[in-house]
């Protein structure tokens, strides 16, 4: 190959200058310039020729290139049309890469995947996410109902900690529950801010999401469960009891039903939502649903 790899400060600068480009802060453009970090990300995702990989936000192609070395096929969705010709050039040596100009939040992931991959390979999602929309992207991925074998994504360290947090810790909240309801989540490693161009203000972390090892008992009504989870974390410092009343009302009849459900499950009134495991939240939602308690 004539060109040096994309991921280095010198090459990144050269590419940006040649195309007369500036980094768009509004699109979360902090490009990775450290080849070792990129290799670690690809290794964490255990990408091999058995895998088709979807990437969100290829930038100038630093991660895409490393994925292309290992994967069967790579498809990357990039919103910034200025970068499409750049990617055409930087990734020209790789015939297993497809770039699509697309806002990931507007993409029907299931459809895009069906159109571009053969369905014969494992499916992984690997990305250095644009930080300004990390949570919406994660929710969009989970709601997209695609059966990913693994999702390996870089995000702000604080968000990564919330996503992978366990009950009883300060970071555990509705995001942890929303994600861990679907997949097992852990932080693979921390990435210092110095490996990006331009440098972000905070450190980052790689989150590894994998298929749940244990099949989860689903709530009786998933929409009810999800709405309840948001509601019980709405005021983090309030008790579960107070948040439940905020969610379902304070009418004597409602309160009596709430009290009954909490008592049946053996939950103290003063307990906070952050103490409950996802299984306990499902039990709570099922108990409330059975008593026909409805949101206000
Ligand atoms: N993958 C490259 C790297 O690691 O160097 C770039 C990562 S950069 C943090 C995020 C990328 O996501 C940028 O290229 C940005 O233009 C792109 N992006 C931002 N919002 C997007 C969206 N809604 N849909 C698709 N791509 C988006």
UniProtKB/TrEMBL annotation:
The entry's keywords: Cytoplasm, Methyltransferase, RNA-binding, rRNA processing, S-adenosyl-L-methionine, Transferase
Domain of life from the UniProt record: Bacteria
InterPro entries in UniProt: KsgA/Erm, rRNA_Ade_diMease-like_C, rRNA_Ade_Mease_Trfase_CS, rRNA_Ade_methylase_Trfase_N, rRNA_adenine_dimethylase, SAM-dependent_MTases_sf
MF GO annotations: transferase activity
Xref: Pfam families: RrnaAD
Signal sequence region: none
Residues where S-adenosyl-L-methionine binds: 30, 32, 57, 78, 103, 128
PROSITE patterns recorded: RRNA_A_DIMETH, SAM_RNA_A_N6_MT
EC numbers, comma separated: 2.1.1.182
Residue intervals of the Ribosomal RNA adenine methylase transferase N-terminal domain: 37-213
Reaction(s) the record says it catalyses: adenosine(1518)/adenosine(1519) in 16S rRNA + 4 S-adenosyl-L-methionine = N(6)-dimethyladenosine(1518)/N(6)-dimethyladenosine(1519) in 16S rRNA + 4 S-adenosyl-L-homocysteine + 4 H(+); adenosine(2085) in 23S rRNA + 2 S-adenosyl-L-methionine = N(6)-dimethyladenosine(2085) in 23S rRNA + 2 S-adenosyl-L-homocysteine + 2 H(+)
Record's subcellular location: Cytoplasm
Catalytic EC class: transferase
UniProt main location, coarse: cytoplasm
Family: Belongs to the class I-like SAM-binding methyltransferase superfamily. rRNA adenine N(6)-methyltransferase family. RsmA subfamily.
Role played: Specifically dimethylates two adjacent adenosines (A1518 and A1519) in the loop of a conserved hairpin near the 3'-end of 16S rRNA in the 30S particle. May play a critical role in biogenesis of 30S subunits.
Protein name as annotated: Ribosomal RNA small subunit methyltransferase A
Organism expressing this protein natively: Ligilactobacillus ruminis
């Amino acid at each position: 190959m004539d060109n040096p790899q994309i991921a280095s400060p010198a090459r990144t600068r050269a590419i940006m200058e040649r195309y007369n480009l500036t980094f768009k802060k509004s699109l979360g453009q902090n490009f990775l310039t450290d080849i070792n970090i990129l290799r670690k990300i690809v290794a964490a995702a255990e990408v091999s020729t058995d895998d088709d990989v979807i990437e969100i936000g290829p930038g100038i192609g630093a991660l895409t290139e490393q994925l292309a070395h290992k994967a069967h096929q790579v498809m990357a969705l990039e919103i910034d049309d200025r970068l499409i010709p750049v990617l055409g050039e930087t990734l020209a040596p790789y015939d297993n890469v497809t770039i699509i100009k697309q806002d990931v939040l507007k993409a029907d992931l299931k459809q895009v995947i069906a159109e571009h991959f053969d369905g014969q390979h494992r499916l992984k999602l690997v990305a250095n996410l644009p930080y300004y929309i990390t949570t919406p992207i994660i929710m969009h991925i989970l709601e997209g109902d695609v059966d990913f074998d693994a999702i390996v994504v870089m995000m702000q360290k604080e968000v990564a900690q919330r996503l992978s947090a366990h009950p009883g810790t300060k970071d555990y909240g509705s995001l942890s529950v929303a994600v861990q309801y679907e997949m097992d989540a852990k932080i693979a490693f921390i990435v210092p801010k110095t490996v990006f161009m331009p440098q972000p203000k905070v450190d980052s972390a790689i989150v590894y999401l994998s298929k749940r090892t244990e099949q989860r008992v689903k709530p009786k009504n998933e929409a009810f469960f999800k709405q309840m989870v948001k509601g019980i974390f709405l005021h983090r410092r309030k008790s579960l009891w107070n948040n439940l009343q905020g969610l379902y009302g304070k009418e004597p009849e409602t309160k009596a039903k709430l009290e009954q459900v909490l008592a049946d499950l053996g939950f103290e009134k003063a307990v906070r939502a952050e103490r409950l495991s996802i299984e306990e939240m499902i039990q709570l939602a099922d108990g409330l649903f059975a008593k026909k308690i409805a949101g206000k």
